Amino acid sequence: MKHANFFCVALSLVMACQAGEPNDEGETETGTATGTETGTETETGTETETGDGDGDGDGDSTGDGDGDGDGDSGDGDGHCCGEAADQYSIYQIQDGTAPSFGWVWVSNVWVTAKRSNGLWVQEMGGGQYSGIWVYTGENLPDLEVIEVGDVVDVLGVRGQFNEVNEINALNGGVTVVGELESPLPPDLISVGNIDATWESVFVRVEGELEVVGLPGDGEFIIDDGTANGYVDDYVFNVMDADEAFPDLGLEATFTAIQGPLNLSASTYKIIPRSAADLEGYQPFL
Predict the structure, then answer these.
(1) Where does this protein have compositionally biased stretches of type Acidic residues (predicted)?
(2) Tell me: the pLDDT tens digits for 224-267?
(3) Which of 37, 126, 148, 208 registers the highest number of CB atoms within 10 A of its CB?
(4) How many domains does the chain have?
């Protein structure tokens, strides 16, 4: 199914080979002129801008957003940069049904978390393969007003960066089309069941979650009785939240922790979004 008349957030008006925020491994994602991903430490997705400010050859700095010369931000045949995008569900993208690279359009998914250079979105039905990371860079005009619980359409390039499956929306867009009436629950799993099928999915672990490791960099390791698992600081640094979690250290416990599941340094890690995502804290006495 081809998507038509998608409202593209005007990223092509503001992106000109700009570097993004360092990711969780200290690398940066950058926009280049190729529209593809290099597979190294730079992420691509923007068009080359020439001396006229927008690269359309007309000498101005406004640009038409889609490269078709008509002055608009969408060409009506698929997306804002002159190519058609096939519609897929996140399930199809994550389970390998969709092509491993190319333009995709994902519709009616909800925002589970966000940070300064992107957001996590998920299918309403949840479950394995239901979530994905959307990279926007830091210049998406509407990123600040997009909230957790918003329902969005996403247009971008399907690919992978630092082992993480993603949609690169640098030259596409994220459009808010609604909001949830009430929050949707995370998927309840055990630490021992964490694997690639849950990548970027909003998950929750429960039980007597004992802190058994402090590897540094704002992370800690928990044991729920089935396996050890990492809790990451990619959105919210629990180790710095002294008021909410005083004396957090080895043998402290929680009763529940939830958040999207991120892949960093070849390890899956739960990303709490705020102190509210960590319940039942008890310091070791």
Answers:
(1) 44-75
(2) 999 999 999 999 999 999 999 999 999 999 999 999 999 999 99
(3) 37
(4) 2
Residues 146 and 15 occupy one common structural domain? yes
Report the alpha-carbon distance of residue 276 to residue 187 in Å, rounded: 17
* Element holding 90 (H helix, E strand): helix 90-94
Contact 252, 284 (CB under 8 A): yes
Full-model pTM: 0.76
Q: Say yes or no: 98 and 156 in one domain.
A: yes
* Longest CA–CA separation in the chain, Å: 70
Judge contact between 163 and 157, C-beta under 8 A: no
DSSP character string of 142-210: TGGG--TTEEEEEEEEEEEETTEEEEEEEEEEEEEEEE-SSPPPPEE--GGG-SGGGTT-EEEEEEEEE
Q: Which amino acid, residue 111? A: V
Question: Under a CB-based contact definition with an 8 Å cutoff, are residues 277 and 258 in contact?
Answer: yes
**What are the backbone dihedrals phi and psi of residue 192, each rounded to the nearest 5 degrees, phi first?**
-65, -20
Q: Tell me: the pLDDT tens digits for 11-42?
A: 333 333 333 343 555 444 544 333 333 333 34
Contacts of 138 (CB under 8 A, 6+ apart): 18, 20, 21, 116, 117
92 φ/ψ angles, rounded to the nearest 5 degrees: -65, -35
| CATH code at position 219 | 2.40.50.140
